[in-house]
Structure prediction request, 782 residues.
Amino acid sequence: MNKLLHLIIILFLCTVSRNLLSQELYKDPDRTTDERIADLLSRMTTEEKIGQLCFPTGWEMYRKIDDHTAVPAESFIERMQKTPIGGFWATLRADPWTQKTLSNGLNLKLSAKALNSLQRFAVEETRLGIPLLFAEECMHGHMAIGTTVFPTGLGQGSTWNPQLIQEMAGVIALETRLQGAHIAYGPILDLARELRWSRVEETFGEDPVLTAKLGVAFVNGLQGNDFKDGRHVYSTPKHFAAYGIPSGGHNGQQAFIGERELFSNHLLPFGKVAEAGVKTIMTSYNSIDGIPATAHKYLLKDILRVEWGFDGFVFSDLGSIEGIAGTHRAAKSVKHAAALSLKAGVDADLGGNAYSKNLISALDEGLVSMSDIDNAVVNILRLKFEMGLFENPYVDTIKASQKVRNEKHIKLSREVARQGIVLLKNCNNILPLKKDIGSIAVIGPNADNIYNQLGDYTAPQERSNIVTVLDGIKNAVNEKTSVYYTKGCDIRDTTETNIQEAVDIANKSDVVILVVGGSSARDFKTEYIETGAATITGAVNEKISDMESGEGFDRSSLDLLGDQEKLISEIANTGKPLIVIYIQGRPLNMNNASEKAAALLSAWYPGQEGGNAVADILFGDYNPSGRLPVSVPRSVGQLPVYYSLGRQADYVEESSSPLYPFGYGLSYTNFEYSDLEVNNENNIIKVRCTISNIGNFDGEEVVQLYIRDNISTVYTPPIQLKDFKKINVKKGEYETVEFILSFDDLALYDSNMMRVVEPGEFSIMIGSSSNSIHLKGNFTID
Prediction:
C-alpha cells in the first residue's frame, strides 16, 4: 500500500511539473521581462544559448522567386534546424560586395515579405520559437533598395543641427522597421583626426562635443520613446573605441593613445549616448595601446557597463573576434579569442563563426563559464522582449511600399544636404547666381555621376531617384539659359581625359561650375575581403575605378587624383568666372582651387538630393549655413591638424594652420556679435550674447562657444568647443543666445584620472569658427 501511494505521489508531482513547464511563462506578456527571460533561459540547451549569440550575414538567407515572392533559402533552414540563432546582419543589404542588384535584390514590399518569412520559420518552426533580430546598415539611410539616401556623416556633421539630425534618424528608423528589421548600425562616433583613413566620410568630424551632440540626436531619432511602436529601432553606435586614429592612416591598425586623451575625447561621445539610453554598441577592429578593442574588458565592462550603466548588448565588428588571434596575435587560436571576447563583455558575434564553432569546446576546457554565456544571452533576449517581438514578430508588408522614400523623406534629404554644404570662398559675392544667366558650363567628373555623390554603404539606385549637380542646375535655371556639360576627366583614370572639350564649352559660357573631388562608389570589379572592406588592385590595361575613399581605401596623400588639378588650372586659364564644388569623402587638397576659383564649396557626399541642394545654394534659394566639422589641411604633412591642438609654430615650407579651420563657413549675409554676459551662479556658468544680422539676406548662423582652462594641473587644449547653437536671424534683426556650462563642461581628468573641476580662471570665447572669435570673457571657479 505504501509503495502504491508513493508511486501515485511521484506520478502526481511529475504531472504538476510537466504542467508548470508547459505553461511557458516566457510567452506570457503579463509576466515581467526578468521572469520571462529566466523561464526561457531555463529551457535552453547550451547549443541554443550559444546560437543566440551569433549574428551571421543575412543576404544569402532568402531566395527570390519573382518580384512578388521570396522564401527562406535552404541554407537558412538548415542552419535554423541545426541551431536557431540570435539574428542576422545585413539581410537586406544590396551592393557589389553582396552581389545584390536592382534585378536580383528585393523591392520594398518584398523586403518586408522576405524578413517575415524568415521570422515565421524562427517563431513557428523551431523548438522554442525565439524571434530573430535583424540588424541593418543605417549610417545615412537604410542600405537597402528603394530607401531614402541622406548625406554621409561629414555632411550631417556640417549641419551643426542636432534637431535636424534627430528628424533624419527618425526617418531612417521608420524605413528600416517597416521592412522588418530591428537594429540600425549607426551613428559613427569615431573622431576623424587621421584624414588619410578611409572611413573619414562616415564620421561627424574631428570634435568630441560636436560628435556627441549629433550622436545623441541620431540615437534618439532611431530609438524614439517606445520600441514597441513599430516605428523605431535599436541604435548601434560604432566603433568602440579610438578607431578614427589608426597608425599610418591604415584602417583597423593600432591606436597609439594615452588614457587621458582616450577618455577626454574619444570615449566622450560613447559616454553621452550610453547616458541617453542606447541599447547596442559595436566594438572596433583596432587595438588600443596594444589591447584589441574587441577583448578590452576594462572598457567593455568596467567603463561601459559599471561606470556608464549601459544595459544593452555589445556587438563585435564583422570578424573582429577572429582578428584578436589573426591581426593582433593576442590569442593563440580563434577559440581562445572567442573566450577572451566573451569574458571581456562582447555579447554578439557579428559573423557568427567565432562563437558558434568554438564556445562549446571553450566551455568544456574551462576557458569560459556557463555564467559568461548566460549573461550574454540574457542581454540579447532582453532586447527581444523589450521590443515586443514575442507578441508581434511580423510587419505589415503593405506599409513599406507606401511609406518608405516618400515625398516628405525626399524633401528632408534635400534639407540635410543643403544645410551640410559649406561655402568656403565667395569672392566679390559672385554667388548667388541669377537664374536667368545666359549660359553655364557644367564640367567635372562629379557633375553628373550618381554614385560618386552617395558615398559608401549605399544600395544600388534607379537613375530617376538621384539628382546630380547637373540635374539640379537644369532644374533651377530659366528655360532660356543654355547649360553645357562635359566630364573633362575621371576621378583617377587618365586614359579618357578630354580637357580641351571642357575648355571649349567654358569659353562659350558666362560662368563655369566645375565639380571635382573623390568617390566611394563601389563597383562589381572591386575585390572585397571578408569584412566587406575593399582591396586596392592595379590591374594592367584596365580602366581605373573612381573609388579612392570608403572602407579599405586609405590614402597616403590628400591630393586630387587623375587629371583633376590640370582640369582646374586649364579652366581657370580661360578667365571665365569659376565656381568649384568638391564632392568628397574626406578633406582633399583645395590649394589650387582656393587660389583660382571665385567661389569654392564643399558638398561632401550630399545624398540623393545633392544636386538640388547645391543648386539651391548656387542660385540663392537657400543661404548657405554649413560649417566645417573637420579642418581642411594645406598638405598631408600637416597632419594631425585638428583645431584643439591650438596654434603651432610654422613649418619651413608652409604655415602650420589649416587652409580652412574647424567651424568655418560663409554666408550670403553678415552677422555681428555683441553684448557678452558671463555670470557664475554657484559654479553654474551662464553665458549670453546678441547676434545681429547686418547683411542683406535672411540667414542662419552657428554660434560656437569655446573655453580654455587657463591654469590646470594637467595639459588641457588651448581651445575646446563646449557648446553651439544654430539660429535663424532675419536681415536687420537680432537674436539673443544663451549657453549654460555645467560641471561636465569644465571638468578634466587629473593626474590620478579622476574627473574633477579644478578651481581657477577660465576663458570664454564665442565666435563663428575656431579661429574667428568675436567675443571674449572670463570667469572663476572658486
